[in-house]
Design goal:
By secondary structure, the chain is of the alpha/beta class. It contains seven helices and 14 strands. The longest helix has 13 residues.
């Protein structure tokens, strides 16, 4: 086992959103490679060899008067690092149909059983947006549908889509650790029809899908909806999440401009997940 040492920062954030989302994005640019959202903020990890005492100097949100953010940090040995993940990652079951668990958890008696190694990436099913996107996939027909999982994180949504009969499937993420973790999870779940790519919406040029799933933040979605619309087959579906209920008018306006119309809304703790159809 590697003896890599990590520095773990425990941030307390008030109010939680959108500060936590912004903080994670800025920390990612600074070299932090993995995050665990907590009840009062986020824990962020960076390899000690990548760390320096000035690592937070360029994190602009820490200087904002809009949010109260405090933190502590400590060294974490590799062995403790693995224990941290196991301790913080509890299995979930969505609608008594789909379980998302780690390899060290016992198997659930559910129709769909997804095994995700909880490291280095987003999308374990715990966040409201991932939970609702799983619900959308469970409720909709994916048999023999071509699918894109954009901003795939752990590829949990792509994996569930394949379990529901989708093929072929592309899973794309701009973050290298998510790309690597998605590749691992695709193999771990014996998926045969998922291709994983590292990149952004520019990769969609010339590609067409019956359904696109995008669980990303609001601003990226607003920027990329026009690109998604060009890559959706006639009468195809676009599933969007990663934003709040108050953001719906902005998202819906941009979708309408690109021929996409709202068909279904799921809500959970002020987060929403929307289904649009191309007409």
């Amino acid at each position: 086992m590697s003896n890599t040492i990590y520095i773990g920062y425990n941030f307390k954030v008030e109010p939680l959103q959108p500060a936590t989302e912004i903080l994670i994005a800025e920390l990612g640019y600074a070299g932090f490679e993995s995050f665990v959202e907590t009840e009062d903020g986020v824990t962020a990890y960076i390899q000690k060899e990548e760390w320096n005492k000035q690592i937070l100097e360029d994190i602009q949100i820490l200087k904002s008067d809009e949010f109260q953010i405090s933190f502590t940090f400590e060294e974490i040995e590799q062995t403790n690092w693995n224990e941290e993940w196991e301790k913080n990652f509890n299995p979930i079951v969505v609608d008594d149909v789909c379980a998302v668990r780690a390899p060290f958890h016992d198997k659930f008696d559910t129709k769909y059983d997804i095994i995700i190694e909880p490291k280095m990436s987003f999308g374990t099913g715990h966040h409201e947006t991932t939970h609702m996107m799983i619900q959308h996939i469970l409720k909709n027909d994916f048999e023999d549908k071509s699918v894109l999982d954009m901003g795939c994180g752990t590829a949990v949504l792509a994996i569930l889509a394949e379990m529901k009969g989708a093929k072929p499937i592309d899973a794309i993420d701009i973050d290298n650790s998510c790309y690597v973790n998605s590749l691992e999870n695709v193999v771990r779940n014996n998926c045969k029809h998922i291709s994983v790519y590292e990149g952004e919406a520019s990769l969609l040029k010339g590609k067409q899908y019956d359904s696109i799933i995008a669980n990303i933040n609001r601003n990226i979605l607003l920027n990329d909806i026009s690109t998604y619309s060009k890559s959706i087959n006639p009468k195809g579906s676009l599933f969007l999440s990663g934003f709040y209920e108050e953001d719906i008018p902005l998202i819906e306006k941009e979708c309408n401009t690109n021929g996409l119309f709202l068909k279904e809304t799921l809500k959970k703790n002020n987060w929403v997940a929307l289904k649009f159809e191309l007409v």
